[in-house]
Amino acid sequence: MVLLGSESILTRNSLAPNFSLIGTDNEMHTLNDYNEYKLLLIIFMCNHCPYVQAKINAINEIHDKFNDKLAIIGINSNDSTQYVDDNFENMKKMTINRNIKFDYLFDENQDVAIKYGAKCTPDPFLFDENKKLIFHGRIDNAMKPNDIVTEKTMINNITKSLHGIKITNYFVPSIGCSIKWKKQ
């Protein structure tokens, strides 16, 4: 496991790069499928990372709290040929076993992670209704899997945005396992 922090490649107001990816529901998903929502949260994640495992309940909490105003998309970009735990079939199992309530998509070619500049898992990106980046960063302040949450960063920022309040610090790095890139 290589611990890595997220980096800000997309800047405030950058448009969300488009994608077309298969989900654990066996359907193809594109960015335009989420046009009806006021906000869009894209989280680069995977199955095996303990940092992601520690955040699944927090992500489901975000989904439950804002599901009529916010779409959440998990994207797994790990090389599943080297990391079998992250293959598509195991993504489907994780969706069931962890009661994942949001769309979980497979970026098999890793093109989407590259477009977004994703570096670690989890690596969350929050976009407004125009698909412009308003926050890139952590879900909460429990940075290690066993840490206690004392600030729900993402919930606070979503609430601010829904109330028309600008998020002042659009980049607060997340940390987690590095995305497992295919060998060139």
What does this structure look like?
The protein has a single domain (3-25, 36-178), classed as Glutaredoxin (3-Layer(aba) Sandwich), CATH 3.40.30. It is 22% helix and 25% strand. The protein has helices at residues 50-53, 56-66, 88-97, 111-116, 153-162; strands spanning 3-5, 20-23, 28-30, 39-45, 70-76, 103-106, 120-121, 123-127, 133-137, 171-172, 175-178. The strands form 2 sheets. An 8-stranded mixed β-sheet has the order 3-2-6-5-4-8-9-10, covered by helices on one side. The mean pLDDT is 94.
Compact description:
The chain has helices at 50-53, 56-66, 88-97, 111-116, 153-162; strands at 3-5, 20-23, 28-30, 39-45, 70-76, 103-106, 120-121, 123-127, 133-137, 171-172, 175-178. By secondary structure, it is of the alpha/beta class.
